[in-house]
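Q: I have 294 residues here and want to know how they pack in 3D. Can you give me a structure?
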Amino acid sequence: MATKTVTAEIVSEFVKSLVKESEKNQLHLVDHSPIFDEPLVGFASGDDPLFSQYKTIIGDFHMTPREVMEKATGKNPEKLSIVSWILPISLCTKASMRRESKYPTIRWSHSRFYGEQFNEHLRAQVVDFLQARGHMAVAPFISPFFKRLTLSNDHTSNWSERHAAYAAGLGTFSLSDGFITPKGIAMRCGSVVTDLDLPASTRPYTSHTANCAFLVNGSCGKCIDRCPGGAITEKGHDKKKCFDYMHTELSPLLERYGVRIAGCGFCQTKVPCESAIPTGLLKRRTSPKGATAA
C-alpha cells in the first residue's frame, strides 16, 4: 500500500474531530452531554532517551516504543513517533464533584467507565486512520501484550499512558500520582506508536513534578484533604489504600450506577489544578521554615 502524507497537524485534527463528533463521547445514560472537552495532542520521538530511563524509573518490564512496535509487527522501522493525547473531563462533570466529599457522582462514574471505553475506541480509530494511509501503528494499551502488574502492593503496567504524555510535553506528575496538564488533572490520556516521523513537541518543563504546587514549594496539598480513603499524605500516594478504597467503599455504587468501575476523582476535583496548571501557587516562594509566601 502506498503511503499518504500524514503530518502532525493532520493527526491532531483527526483526534480533535473524533472527540468532538463521536456519539461514543457522550453521557448517554445521564443527559447526552460530552464526556470530554476538546483534547490536547502532543508528540514524542520513539527514540527519546526517556523511554529507556522508564525501565529504571518504572521497571524493566516497561516497554520502549521500539519494543512495542517489534512485538506488534515484528519490524523495527527507521523512525518512530508517539502520538499522545489528553482528554479533559467536562466542566459540568467536574462541577458535580465539587459538592461531594465521600462518593463520586453518577456523572463522574459514567465518565470514568464509559469515557475509558471511548478512549479505547479513539486509540483503535487512530491506529486504523494511520494504517489506512500506509503506516504502521499500534496502541499499546489495547494490544494483546499489554499487562497490568502488582509488585509489592504497587499497581503498575508495562506501558504508561501518563509517562508517554510526559515525554510528549503534555504535563507533569503530582503528589497524588495524577498528571497535571494545561487543561488540568481531571482527564484521561491515551497514545499510539507509529512509524511516522513527526516533530516532537517541546517539553515546557525541566522537572517531572514542575506543575504540582505542593512538590514545587509546599503551597498546596488540597488533594490530601480531598481524598476520602486517606491514600494521599505529604509523603505521596499510597496506591494500595487507593485501590482498596475504590474496590470496597465504592463497590455498592457499581450496581446502582450500572458500571463496573465507579472511579473516585476527589483528588482531581475542587483542587487548584482541577482545570489548569496552578501557576499562581507555583510562583510562590518557599520560606526558610518551609511555609510559603506570596
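Q: Anything worth noting?
A: The CA atoms of residues 13 and 41 lie 9 Å apart. Confidence is low (pLDDT under 50) at residues 287-294.
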